[in-house]
């Protein structure tokens, strides 16, 4: 698996799984009816932020991550990231590779920590992965997310010092 900078030519491969994940409404706080143009603008970030894709030997996009400063101004020393793995390639280490890549990017870019603002507590695979990489749950916003089948569930704020 290779992780490389994403470009607009990758969007047609990202959009189908991006759309499926967002429309399911189970893990992201994006509107479930998000249109393609807006999704592309939110995901493909301009420098100094980054968006990457994980690809296999044939060039198939397996997943993607975006990395950015979590806040502006005097809070800009904290990084954040978001991840999407094509469900057809889940369980193959793509999410872990992307997460580890973003932590290294943030460290190399001089950030002091990473913070995830809204990890849905029912997204147990993501929570387990983030914890295994050193993130801790700082707190949970009770009923901060309206899950389509589980009702109102918490949103974790997760943090890791770099």
Automatic annotation (TrEMBL):
The lineage of its organism: Bacteria, Bacillati, Actinomycetota, Actinomycetes, Kitasatosporales. This is GNAT family N-acetyltransferase. PANTHER family: ACETYLTRANSFERASE, GNAT FAMILY, N-ACETYLTRANSFERASE ACA1. Residues 1-159 form the N-acetyltransferase domain. InterPro entries: Acyl_CoA_acyltransferase (IPR016181), GNAT_dom (IPR000182), Mito_N-acetyltransferase (IPR052742). Gene3D superfamilies: 3.40.630.30. It comes from Streptomyces chiangmaiensis. PROSITE patterns: GNAT. It comes from the Bacteria.
């Amino acid at each position: 698996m290779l992780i490389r900078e994403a470009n607009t030519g990758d969007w047609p491969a990202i959009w189908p799984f991006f759309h499926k994940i967002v429309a399911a409404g189970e893990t992201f706080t994006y509107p479930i009816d998000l249109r393609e143009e807006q999704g592309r603008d939110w995901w493909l970030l301009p420098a100094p932020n980054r968006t990457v894709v994980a690809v296999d030997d044939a060039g198939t996009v397996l997943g993607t991550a975006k990395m950015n400063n979590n806040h502006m101004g005097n809070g800009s020393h904290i990084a954040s990231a978001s991840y999407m793995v094509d469900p057809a390639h889940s369980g193959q280490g793509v999410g872990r590779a992307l997460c580890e890549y973003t932590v290294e990017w943030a460290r190399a870019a001089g950030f002091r920590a990473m913070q995830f603002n809204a990890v849905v507590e029912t997204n147990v695979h993501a929570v387990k992965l983030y914890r295994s990489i050193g993130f801790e749950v700082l707190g949970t916003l009770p009923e901060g997310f309206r899950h389509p089948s589980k009702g109102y569930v918490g949103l974790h704020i997760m943090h890791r010092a770099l």
